[in-house]
Amino acid sequence: xxxxxxxxFFAAAPVQDxxxxxxxxSKPVVSEDASAREIIETCRAMIPRDVEIRGHFRLRSRRGSxxxxxNYILKRIDGKTELxxxxxxxxxxxxxxxxxxxxxxxxxxxxxxDLVLDYLWWDDVSFDxxxxxxxAQGILGRVVLLKNADRVIRVWVxxxxxxxxxxxxxxxxxxxxxxxxxxxELFCTSLKKFGERWSPKNIEVGxxxxxxxxxxxxxxxxxxxx
Length: 226
Fold this sequence. Notes:
β1 and β2 form a beta hairpin. This protein has three helices and ten strands; from the N terminus they run ααβββαβββββββ. The protein has helices at residues 15-22, 36-45, 112-116, and strands spanning 51-61, 66-77, 80-86, 124-127, 142-148, 151-157, 164-172, 180-194, 197-206, 212-223. Helices cover 10% and strands 42% of the residues.
């Protein structure tokens, strides 16, 4: 599951990649009077119920050089998610769902949530009125807060496609009632239409100001016939 406003350590994200893709969508799929829950349900609809997603992720330095690459296949069938990861030599790689997917020593800042977007299925959903005027990639979307126990995710959703443009994992500021600080960022730098569904194509994730980010590239999204 990272900001479309790139940190000072990274070159600015290619806004035109997102804007040019969205220009083809004349009729928004998210109505102006949609509730926060309806907006998130639209996001979920962009992901097939039974799906196979193929792609890769790589550790990217602030100069843009690549340190390591891993391929992945994610399958979700009947609400159950399976993930397989291989290294550059095709060898299977172990991962964990808690913390960083490949562990802190890998340098990869990617998590389970970054790939499976599990927070879209959380029940506690509301608008973030304090951030409703903030843009993502220069695009004014709908800003929604999702909560599950002590985890809080802020999501920017594009009104034209229902796709996620940006997400922040938040932590509460001690002594500040209702205020949060950004712990991790996910931002989409390009969108692609897979069949009839819009999806992020390139995503970058990591903590604000990090020396390295992990770049996720989604290569294929397809329905799985059971």
